[in-house]
């Protein structure tokens, strides 16, 4: 009888990826999770495979690291080392024969792109076969993995979900904007693996880096540094200047795939531009793709002191104008990520959500310096500011100045109201509206003065999702020349786009659907801009169209799409207006049913 000869291999990609919950991920290789078995089928010719005459040894290769795993007839899979167990044989007296081997990786295996080889050792010869490559990820479904997450709902939300909302604005006027994390989009997982390969740690010491990739703490630190361009070949370049003419305004990004693909297509040159929420969203994509549970966190009104006195110092002049003096600030918001992992390096009690901040730290005086409001009482005069409703772009801003004389004698007062635009930095950029007047107030009297700022007074030059405004009032007692200040910082929200789906409750995979994007122009002038509609797993290509909308006109634009993946998906739309320069967003979450 002819000798045993290996003919072909089958890595059972569909079966293995379904079993490993990686079936939605797009990669040039088989994608697996550590700490879990996978099956390889070997087809052969000649006489039946005889474990007594042939030794089969799998070689698991990761860069310079190699593990040899002999095939066993009965050994049980292990969570601490690589194992290979002969699973079944299907002899055929007349045709091809096959047998399967169950390979298991340890729950602490390094993540990366492996090469799988098999060596056949017979008495007369030794032959090595190159099977294929596979990508190994962390496994939050495996209890022995340090990223194990107990709840299936949480695993779905923080690993499998490719959609989410990022929160900006202010605590009393939240801006939620859609983001497509895009970890299932074509080529994204391969780009995430390339990101690890381009890290300074890998370039400096490949062997050490690959060994350290068993630890999600190490992985998180590498990814956090690589998302920004402060390291060589980093993904995003930060810009808080307001001038984005040689790149993309951070407010215009709506998903991670465009950023990561652009980075790869330009030979890994930093993509222009990002700010804290963009850095965090891209990092969330990479971490989820690698199998590490991750969520995006927004922190509002973050105090940032520089002189160690535990006091935040801000300065105003007598006219209510905030001055660019000192380096303390209260950031309007800052966005980072949290990833779930064990922390044996810190001791008991520190496992769980770990903060990772990919925004370049040397720009820590950057983001979103905005204040919580405060009022003041001094020498019997109390001053308060009151916004009458959450401001929306296109509408006037209405607010009250409330002054109370808390003593039994009349007073002559000078009132100075100052309103300043703010960009995404610590200080206002200049006064755009002010009001000054003298007034009398009687004993124990409360006076409410209403003010209104017209929309034409707060237009900005560069398109933003929401405007930041610093409002302050200084009231001076003419007799004593004592002054009291009240201030409030707030954001002006942009109008939203509305998305409706035909037959919303019966959206089925591979069945064409139609969405309608609706927007009513709230401005007193015609507006022009570009509408973009996208959706991971819903639209293969973005739908884009140029629009001109008359004052108070309502437009409805249909968009056809065919879902390609089941589960919760998001259709998002953005409208970038030219004048006024504003970015509008809308989204619709869709539950796509399997066919």
Automatic annotation (TrEMBL):
One of its GO terms (molecular function) is protein-glutamine gamma-glutamyltransferase activity. One of its GO terms (cellular component) is mitochondrion. SUPFAM superfamilies: Cysteine proteinases, E set domains, Transglutaminase, two C-terminal domains. The active site is at residues 276, 334, 357. Residues 268-360 form the Transglutaminase-like domain. Gene3D superfamilies: Immunoglobulins, Transglutaminase-like. It holds the Pfam family Transglut_core. GO terms for biological process: nervous system development. InterPro entries: Ig-like_fold, Ig_E-set, Papain-like_cys_pep_sf, Transglutaminase, Transglutaminase-like, Transglutaminase-like_sf, Transglutaminase_animal, Transglutaminase_AS. Belongs to the transglutaminase superfamily. Transglutaminase family. This is Transglutaminase-like domain-containing protein.
């Amino acid at each position: 009888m002819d000798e045993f000869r290996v003919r072909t291999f089958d890595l059972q990609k569909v079966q293995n990826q379904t079993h490993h919950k990686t079936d939605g991920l797009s990669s040039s290789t088989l994608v697996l999770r550590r700490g879990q078995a996978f099956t390889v089928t070997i087809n052969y010719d000649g006489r039946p495979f005889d474990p007594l005459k042939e030794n089969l040894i799998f070689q698991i290769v990761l860069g310079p690291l190699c593990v040899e795993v002999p095939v066993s007839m009965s050994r049980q899979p292990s969570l601490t080392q690589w194992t290979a167990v002969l699973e079944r044989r299907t002899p055929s007296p007349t045709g091809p024969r096959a047998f399967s081997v169950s390979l298991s990786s340890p729950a602490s295996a390094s993540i990366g792109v492996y090469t799988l080889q098999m060596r056949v050792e017979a008495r007369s010869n030794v032959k090595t076969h190159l099977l294929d490559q596979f990508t190994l990820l962390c496994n939050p479904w495996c209890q022995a993995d340090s990223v194990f997450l107990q709840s299936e709902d949480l695993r779905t939300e923080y690993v499998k979900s490719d959609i989410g909302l990022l929160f900006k604005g202010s605590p009393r006027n939240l801006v939620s904007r859609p983001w497509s994390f895009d970890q299932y989009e074509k080529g994204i997982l391969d780009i995430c693996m390339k990101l690890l390969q381009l890290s300074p740690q890998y370039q400096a010491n490949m062997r050490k880096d690959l060994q350290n990739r068993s630890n999600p703490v190490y992985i998180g630190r590498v990814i956090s540094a690589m998302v920004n361009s402060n390291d060589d070949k980093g993904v995003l370049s930060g810009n808080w200047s307001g001038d984005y003419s040689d790149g993309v305004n951070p407010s215009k990004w709506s998903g991670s795939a465009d950023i990561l693909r652009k980075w790869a297509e330009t030979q890994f040159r930093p993509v222009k531009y990002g700010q804290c929420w963009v850095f965090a969203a891209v990092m969330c994509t990479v971490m989820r793709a690698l199998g590490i549970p991750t969520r995006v966190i927004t922190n509002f009104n973050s105090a940032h002191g520089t002189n160690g006195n535990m006091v935040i110092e801000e300065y105003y002049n007598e006219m209510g104008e905030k001055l660019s003096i000192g380096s303390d600030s209260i950031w309007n918001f800052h966005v980072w990520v949290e990833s779930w992992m064990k922390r044996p390096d810190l001791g008991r009690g520190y496992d769980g959500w770990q903060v990772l901040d990919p925004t370049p730290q040397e720009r820590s005086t950057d983001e979103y310096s905005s204040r919580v409001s405060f009022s003041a009482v001094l020498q019997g005069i109390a001053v308060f500011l009151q916004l009458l409703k959450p401001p929306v772009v296109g509408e006037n801003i209405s607010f009250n100045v409330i002054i109370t004389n808390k003593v039994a004698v009349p007073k002559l007062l000078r009132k100075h109201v100052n309103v300043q635009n703010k960009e995404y930095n610590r200080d206002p950029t200049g006064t755009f509206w002010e009001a000054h007047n003298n007034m009398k107030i009687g004993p124990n009297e409360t006076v409410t003065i209403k003010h209104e700022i017209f929309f034409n007074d707060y237009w900005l030059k560069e398109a933003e999702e929401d405007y930041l405004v610093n409002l302050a009032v200084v009231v001076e007692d003419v007799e004593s020349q004592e002054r009291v200040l009240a201030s409030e910082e707030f954001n002006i929200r942009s109008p939203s786009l509305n998305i409706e789906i035909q037959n919303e409750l019966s959206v089925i995979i591979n069945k064409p659907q139609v969405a309608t994007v609706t927007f009513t122009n709230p401005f007193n002038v015609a507006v022009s801009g570009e509408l973009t509609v996208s959706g991971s797993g819903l639209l293969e290509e973005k739908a884009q169209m140029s629009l001109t909308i008359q004052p108070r006109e309502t437009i409805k634009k249909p968009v056809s799409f065919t879902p390609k993946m089941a589960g919760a998906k998001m259709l998002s739309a953005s409208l970038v207006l030219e004048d006024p320069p504003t970015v509008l967003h809308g989204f619709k979450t869709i539950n796509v049913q399997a066919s």
